[in-house]
Specification:
Largest sheet: 6 strands, mixed
CATH architecture of the largest domain: 2-Layer Sandwich
CATH class of the largest domain: Alpha Beta
Number of strands: 12
Number of helices: 11
Distance between the termini: 60 Å
CATH superfamily of the largest domain: Ribonuclease H-like superfamily/Ribonuclease H
Order of helices and strands: HHHHHHEEEEHEHEHHEEEEEEH
């Protein structure tokens, strides 16, 4: 099953919430989840009848009752705080409202209740002034990808790989990896692409495995371009250009990694899967007006191709196969393209300036060559 690494309840809840969004392609969602459309519609019916409890295989009786007393609301608040000790008054109030709790107190009252019961940490304080944010207008226009700094466990180290949708802050991947090698990343990305489709662009920093030689291309980024995904890199020493994923990393550290030690990566992945479902489907996000990320996300309509397409170029292009040294020969000169493109076909297109050529791979312009500079360098 495509989603076999995710718990059954997590799988059902996520696909149901995505299916309830306006314009959702339910047949495509069912296919990507590895279930029949009939099964998905059954889940939807249960969810409408009994909420999350209806997705269980056992009793469909709701876990909570809307007819709770004021004292019951306070008990629920404290229990929710114990489950999520890093959440403040605004998140807790919104989550209680999302759960259907009646007469939810205001965020300031929630904070007062926490303080009265000794649940308010000394370091908690109100957020600072407004922060100017930029986000893409639709899901899947940009995904940010990075490794969270590795953490030790009893059998070695865990390298958390994270992928975040820029528009919705929906976490597409939170993987406990054994290493930070390209093959590991590719394996995880294939699973993500099969589940959510392909983004238009992905952004990452300049380090390995996605930043390489002077051309800034690696075998991994060339593979992404073969899928039709544009690749961009953050500016060196400017992590803010990966700001949403960096912010996600801080939340991951505060709510999951802090003061915790895993036995191995299997245990880490189990914890990651449980928390990812909370982050995407339950945890109110201030940058989203206290909505949860899944309400703003839509799977991409562009499905993952199991077979890569061959490059196609214009009839007027000069097409070359990149040699084992990462170069092509043009007018008697060896022109460096980059070792990441070894064995690939690239196209050279002339410009209005006779000595200047553009280099294209698939639909992407990857370099500009000035033969005058090449001649000067070889002299």
């Amino acid at each position: 099953m495509p989603w076999k690494d995710v718990s059954l309840m997590t799988q059902r809840k996520e696909v149901v919430m995505l299916a309830l969004l306006e314009g959702a392609n339910r047949r495509e969602l069912a296919s990507r989840a590895g279930v029949s459309p009939k099964t998905l519609y059954k889940w939807l019916g249960r969810y409408r009848e009994a909420g999350e409890a209806g997705l269980c295989d056992g009793s469909r009786r709701p876990h909570t009752s809307p007819q709770r007393t004021g004292a019951g609301v306070e008990e629920q608040l404290l229990a929710l705080r114990d489950l999520h000790p890093a959440w403040g008054g605004r998140k807790l109030a919104r989550r209680l409202s999302d759960l259907g709790v009646p007469e939810v107190p205001s965020p300031s009252t929630v904070t007062a209740i926490l303080r009265r019961h000794g649940r308010l940490a000394q370091a908690e304080r109100q957020a600072g002034g407004p922060w100017q944010r930029f986000e893409h207008p639709e899901p899947n226009l940009l995904w940010q990808m990075d490794f969270k700094g590795h953490v030790a466990h009893d059998r070695g180290r865990c390298h958390p790989l994270t992928v975040l949708d820029d528009h919705s802050r929906f976490n597409l991947c939170l993987a406990a990896c054994d290493n930070e090698q390209a093959a590991t990343v590719k394996e995880r990305l294939i699973a993500v692409f099969r589940r959510y489709g392909l983004p238009r662009r992905m952004s990452m920093d300049n380090g390995p495995p996605w930043g390489g030689d002077a051309s800034d291309y690696t075998a991994l980024t060339v593979w992404l371009m073969q899928l039709g995904i544009a690749v961009t890199h953050s500016r060196p020493y400017h992590p803010q250009t990966q700001g949403k994923d960096e912010r996600f990393h801080r939340t991951l550290k505060a709510e999951v990694l802090q003061a915790r030690r895993f036995a191995d990566n299997a245990q880490a992945q189990c914890v990651f899967d449980q928390w990812r479902q909370i982050y995407n489907c339950e945890r109110p996000h201030e940058a989203l007006g206290m909505a949860v990320p899944i309400t703003r996300y839509r799977p991409s309509p562009v499905s993952y191709p199991e077979v890569l397409a061959e490059p196609e170029y214009l009839e007027t292009d000069r097409v070359y196969k990149v040699g084992r040294d990462g170069t092509v020969e043009l007018k008697g000169r060896r022109i460096r393209i980059g070792k990441a493109f070894v064995g690939q076909r690239v196209a050279l297109r002339p410009t209005a300036t006779e000595a200047v050529w553009k280099v294209w791979f698939m639909r992407f312009e990857i370099a500009e060559l000035d033969l005058r500079e090449q001649q000067s360098a070889q002299a």
